[in-house]
Amino acid sequence: MPKLSVIVPFHNVRPHAPDTLRSLRLNARPDFEFLLVDDHSQDGTQDILERAAEDLSAVARVRHFRHDGNRGVSAARNTGLDAARGEFLVFLDGGDWLAPGHLARLVADAEELGCDFVRTDQVQVTGRARSVRRVPVGLRGEVLNPRDAILPADRTTSVDYVYVWAGIYRRRLLERGLLHFDEGLRTAEDRPWAWRLHREAESFAVTDLLGVFYRRGVSSSLSRIGDARQLDFIRAFDQILEETSADRDAGLLLPKAVRTYCAVIAHHLAERDKFEPAVARKLRTMSAAALRRMPQDVLDDVLDTMDLRRSARLRRLRRPGRRAGTGKDAA
């Protein structure tokens, strides 16, 4: 069994893939395996991966996969998960990279802590600017209960830190069915994934290890594309609400789920100009319907405690009998 499986999906990232693959070589060990999944790239990424796989095979175990059609990042990660044989698992996106030796240090931390998963801070890269994003957990290097890290409802917590590649996961989570992604979600697939992990895993920890570089502004990233795939966040949060409603601690956890859902709706409404006009109208219609599906008593409490600007926008959207996108009350 390899010590570590590294799952890396690629889709149309030819300008950045060489940096990613070079960083893998600088992290390679004979007991590491790299699972390179090309999600039907059309820009020459496939050729780069074929050459890199041959080069990497001299220093690590490498397997290379290509989808017959573009199936999305969830499917690409799942392809890697299905093939992974490692004791530990790590994700990396095809436009990002790792500091030399990062994976060895991450495995050492995970072995020492002995918990189900470990989260790490990350460096966000926008052009030449770099900034550190930290896991919103104060205690470092201590084993914690991930369920406890979901709350409080009115603060950013560990469950909101949805960067799947900023951490390492034990194989037992894969065997329990906690690491696969919903392939029906083209965006926001990390949201229900993070909630499920925090509700059902038994232990986690956060380390100060800093070695993941996340490249923002990649042209092929769906977060930069204002089409209907962006609206998958509604189905993602509907899934979170459904699963959390069935949880033994639903009364405690639902306010956090509803509050986060409302915050994301308000965020997208505030940036509606990035969407195609038809998609912007659909966003308002679907958001209004989502508010009606939420547990109304919980929603009332959430709106009473949110900041005035966001709560006013959501209250207007919630009013019955209004046609979305018309009148002076339009968000």
Short summary of the structure?
The chain has 331 residues and is α/β, with parallel strands linked by helices. It is built from eleven helices and eleven strands.
Protein architecture, described:
Mean pLDDT is 93; it is low at 322-331. The chain has a 7-stranded mixed sheet, sandwiched between helices. Strands 5-11-7-8 form a 4-stranded mixed sheet. It is built from 11 helices and 11 strands. The protein is α/β, with parallel strands linked by helices and 331 residues long.
Describe the SSE topology.
Blueprint: E1 4-10, H1 17-25, E2 32-38, H2 45-56, E3 61-66, H3 73-83, E4 88-91, E5 97-98, H4 102-113, E6 117-120, E7 122-126, E8 129-133, E9 167-170, H5 171-175, H6 190-200, E10 204-207, E11 212-215, H7 232-245, H8 250-270, H9 277-293, H10 296-305, H11 308-318
Parallel strand pairs: 1-2, 1-4, 2-3, 6-10, 7-11
Antiparallel strand pairs: 4-9, 5-11, 6-9, 7-8
Helix pairs in contact: 1-2, 6-7, 7-8, 8-9, 8-10, 8-11
**Radius of gyration, CA atoms, in whole angstroms:** 20 Å
Biggest sheet overview: 7 strands, mixed
Q: Count the strands?
A: 11
Structural class, by secondary structure, is alpha/beta
The amount of helix comes to: 40-55%
H and E order: EHEHEHEEHEEEEHHEEHHHHH
Number of helices: 11
Spatial strand order of the main sheet:
3-2-1-4-9-6-10
Name the descriptors.
alpha/beta; about 40% helix; about 325 residues; disordered C terminus; globular; four-stranded mixed sheet
